[in-house]
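Translate sequence into structure tokens.
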Amino acid sequence: MANYTFPSDCFYTKEDEWVQVDDDRTTLGITDYAQQQLGDVVFLELPSAGDEIKQGEPFGVIESVKAVSDLYAPVTGRVVESNPALEETPELVNESCYEDGWLLAIEPTDESEFESLMNSSAYRDYVAEREEG
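Result follows.
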């Protein structure tokens, strides 16, 4: 398996998004595996503050030199902020997908949805299965 990063403090989806819950902020983005598969990210279309996102449904679009893909909400919630840095420098998703390249900060509305997400170990296994194909 290629060299991917799977932070243990994140939850993951089968659509290759991550979500991280800190004391005062819930942040989400795409995984290291996803950004490597996409290649150089050139554009993102993200919701605005106040918009609602629903678990499992598309909330935006990511465009790379290889493909255009939908982004899927890992959990339901209200958008607090879209990462403003990505408007000018979408390549931050490739350079630092778990830190500077985050996509949204949200207020989750159903904490129980986190139970349906994978931990880092389960997501690592999921990626390995896909790579073995």
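Note: The CA atoms of residues 10 and 54 lie 19 Å apart.
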